[in-house]
Each structure stands twice: as structure tokens, then as C-alpha cells.
């Protein structure tokens, strides 16, 4: 339920960068969202459609790239993708390890005109 | 034209969290963010921790709830400073809210601030407040499958407190499997088995908290 404030943050960031670049409007917003964060694409889109009119982001396409979670096994250092939240290392069958990817939540870039 | 941005969407919150942390560090205060589902036992664990440590640690509590002062009233009976934050529907506390709460606390006279976050296993994880310690309560009746369903919180915390163990005889809860799974996801995590109802295990928990205050701040 916090996608409203999140989406406002996204708009603040991209509108500021677009303004700084002297753009007339933003056409694409490229977001990176890790699988281990709690953010829902559809919900961000919903609030984006509500909040973006009248800003440089109006009509922009939200391109959300989901990043899978990757784990580094502490037993054998194998790096593996977390699938179906199965934390067993495919190499040595130890359970889990350190999360090295999957917590990202950032604006990567924007396309502007 | 492509414009590179690479900016964390939560950076506005993170910056205020950092300011909170700096303020708390200046006063030598350890801050613990307590997260759990509704009814997991956040308030009960905080009350037990106050009882165990109040003779040697100066404690204050920040209570986050969508509405009401029910929890803050329970804590206030222990005669420790307590600030209630009503989030007005928001599912988590954030750094600006904590900043407002800290302004109401006697920071010069505190060693430990316990923050009771809104009952929710998802949203509070993503919002830093300025805490030193993140703790979650996983109460046994919620089931031993929760790490699969809410991995984000299990990998983000310094300690998992398994509460309501007095009910284990009535539950299907595989404790060894649960512990193994949590340790797999988060190899550095500390696990405590407690019952806030009977007090079982709460002394060990409180001792760990006391140690954390020492190691983090001294």
C-alpha cells in the first residue's frame, strides 16, 4: 500500500532530471526493481497514471526491469539465481547464503524529448 | 535522448534516516526497529524487554500504528517515555515520521529506543528509519512457512524472535526446519525462542539486546 508515496518519489526524481536536461517531455522511464523488494508493477503504474498528468512525465511509458534474486553460497561460493524461493545451493546442496542481487529499487535512466 | 539517472527511489527517505542516525549516534543511543505481523507480539516483547533491562538501560519507545493509542497506553504504564505515531493508514513508518518522534524524546537521557513498526511483514523492510538493529518477531501460530512467503524481511534482520512457543504443543510447527531455513537465508541472524506470555526465553533475548547496546555504542 505504499506505492503512492513511492510513485511520487519516482516522479520527483525523473521530472528533476528531465528539467535539468532541458527536456520538453519524458517518453520512457526505466526502473530496476529487485525481486526481493515488495513493490508491485501494476500498483506503481496505477499511481503513475494518477500522478503524472500535468508533469513532464505525462504520457511516459514505465519500463520496469525486474532483477532476479541471486545468492552466493557460503559453503562453496557458487552463485545461483533464487527460483521459487528455493534457497538450496545447486552445486553443494547447502541452504542459502548471501544475497548479492535482488534488492535494487532505482530509476536507471529516462528517455526524453 | 537518453538521460542516465541511477538514483535510488527511496533516497529521500534514506537521507533523513541517515540524519536520524547521526542524531542518535551523537547521543549514544541504540535504536531497534521491531517488525512483525499484526498480533505477533511486538508490544509484548517490548514490555518484556523493558522489564528485563530497566534497572541498567534507559529506554524509550516509539509506537507506530495506523490508528489508536492502545499500544502506547500499555507501554506508558511502565513509566518509560513513549511517543505514539499514527500513520493515518500508511503501512509502515518512515524516516520523517521517526524524526518527528525523536524530537519529543529526552535524547540526552536515553540508551535504547525501541520502535514498534506497523504490523506488516512487507513494507517496513524497505524504509530505513535510522536504526542500528532490525528485529522481527515470527510467532509460532503464523506457521513455519513464512520465510518462503516473506523472504525480504527474513534476510534483512539482525534477529528473529520466535514468539508464543508456549503454544507449540498445539501447533504443527517444525522448529528445526524453521531455524535451518532462516539461517540459510540469513547466516548471521540471531534466533531466539521466547514466550512473552510466560516469559520463557525473554531473559536470553534481553541479554542479547544489552550486549548489542554495549558493542554498538561503546
Structure characterization notes:
The complex is a heterodimer of chains A (113) and B (218). Chain A has 113 residues and is an alpha+beta fold. Chain A is 26% helix and 32% strand. The longest helix of chain A is centred in the N-terminal third of the chain and has 18 residues. The relative contact order of chain A is 0.25. The mean pLDDT of chain A is 92. Helix content of chain B is 37%, strand content 22%. The radius of gyration of chain B is 17 Å and the shape is globular. Chain B has a seven-stranded parallel beta sheet with strand order 4-3-5-2-6-7-8, with helices on both faces. The longest helix of chain B is centred in the first third of the chain and has 16 residues. Chain B has 218 residues and is of the alpha/beta class. The chains are: A alpha+beta (113), B alpha/beta (218). At the A-B interface, helix 1, strand 5 and strand 6 of A face strand 1, helix 1, helix 6 and helix 7 of B.
Could you give a quick summary of the protein structure above?
The complex is a heterodimer of chains A (113) and B (218). Chain A is an alpha+beta fold and 113 residues long.
Q: According to CATH, what is the class of the domain at 3-68 and 101-112 in chain A?
A: Alpha Beta
Strand content of chain A: 25-35%
How many structural units, i.e. domains of chain B?
A: 1
Q: Radius of gyration of chain A, Cα only, in angstroms?
A: 18 Å
Strand count, sense and barrel status of the largest sheet of chain B are: 7 strands, parallel
* Residue fraction in strands of chain B: 15-25%
Number of helices of chain A: 2
Question: Strand arrangement, largest sheet of chain A?
Answer: 2-1-6
What class would the helix/strand composition of chain B place it in? alpha/beta
In one word, what is the shape of chain B?
Answer: globular
Q: Into which percent range does the helicity of residues of chain A fall?
A: 25-40%
